[in-house]
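Changelog note: in this version the structure field was regenerated for every chain. One regenerated record is shown below for reference.
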Amino acid sequence: MNFLQKIFANLALLPAKPILQELRTGQVVSTSCSELLENIAQAHRYLTLAGLRPGQRCVLLAPNSSRWVALDLAIMAEGATVVPLYSRQAPEELVWMIKDCSPSLICCSDEQLRDSVISLWPKAPRVLMFDKIFARTQEKPLQGAAALHASRISSLANSGARFLADLKDDTPVTIIYTSGTSSPAKGVVLNVGNVTFMLQRTQRRLEELMQNVAKAGDDRVLHYLPFCFAGSWILLLTCLFRNNGLMLSTDLNKLAEEIRIARPHYFLNVPALLERMCNGIKTQLRQKRGIGLALFERGQSTWRKGRNGRGGWRDWLWLSLAESLVFPKIKRQLSPNLRALICGSAPLAEETQLFFQMLGIPVLQVYGLTETTAICTMDDVQHVTPGRVGPAIPGIEMKLGDRDEILVRGPNVFPGYFNRPQETAEMIENGWLHTGDQGEVDERGNWKIVGRLKNLIITSGGHNISPEPLEQMLLQALPETEQVMVVGNGCKFLSVIIAGNVAKERIEAALEAVNQQLPHYKQLRRFYLTTEPFTVENGLLTAYRKLKRTAIEARYKEQIENLYRE
């Protein structure tokens, strides 16, 4: 049974069960299994009327919602390929990707977004609006073959998986575009076999996480990351694959409030959010002052000493008080049910991971690429090594190649890029996928990501330097900044571009503290400060919120050159 058959069978099994819950302005709006099936059938009928057929591509352009999920499943059920795009991305980038994948249809939730696409591409394929798709009356009656097909699919809500298209393991189900940090975005094709394999692995790991956890009913799972990202989509499908409810955040500005409402056992994160949460907790404690702050600071100091094998009995008394009175209170405020935080998409600072571990909240790291169906490694629930991303998932192989590049082989590796045979051949050699990431692995098989080969800075002295670890160190030293990017390729020394409203004295102090920990050739000698943050909208961040290094260097070309003038 493939993943889609399993999901439809689950939905038919418990029709009254709430499977999706949208958090909207403090209220919980639920969608039951039967309602989701009805929405899938409704969407499928409408798409069929609009001409969607197996093997074609359909763009899905909208933020997360239960309707997004229904459309995603309906398109795949037809045997067509879903192309999910990030609705907040610059319209020019969206149009480029839509043209690249040559879709038959575009499904869009927002009229303004639709208009921005059409204004840039008047000959765009037909755009279907969500409100029309899910309206209970059709624009015109179905006729002929379309009527027969719609009649067949209308019984989907009562029949589960029986009327799904005949999907083979090599049938494409989605094209997810890469972030395009250093080159144009490419469409990653994932097939039924890739996804089925991955969901079996993620299901197993979540069951291990929740083993022996007292709970009534499903795991409580909150989700805020856009479904158009591979890891986010895999978590959505994993919940449906397990027949486990999923709560959807609908307003990132109210995420803290929604976490309190959801009271999750776990949720998927990116490092930036965990770092903001960490800094926010510390700021609140400092503002309140009093005995709570004193206990926290003494407890934290002792906990750090303990990790280094130091500390006397008086220290342990302070730690005992903090672990009894302060740390559990912070954990309860985040969520009284919190079992773990799951983190992926980019390197997480070890200091941030240790902070949550001190509070009694494990941070489980996941590493992977869109090309590996989002995941290569997952932290072992019982044996988390801070600073590492866990062992390879069962069923795949990982090894180091030239220049310590991580190579991956297994059922999770994608079949290729859409319409890019040359790039596919360069990415996969003899069955091994070249990730472009530099790594290292310890004796227990736990992997660590060192940096990106394409991002390597080679100074005029011949030193090869990964900028990511240096950027993490500076962000830790300057939590009030927005982003930082190290530069200096071909130059005598390294410099850094800093985005944010930060006093220059603070930057100088942070650079001095960071440089004390570095060899001379890695030290950051000069900086340029801009108050304009790097964002998706101004084209300096990818949809995955990663630095677009080439674009940033082009934007600040003159300022960078000035840093290296004698």
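Spot check on this record: Residues 115 and 528 are 38 Å apart (CA to CA). The two ends are 67 Å apart (CA to CA).
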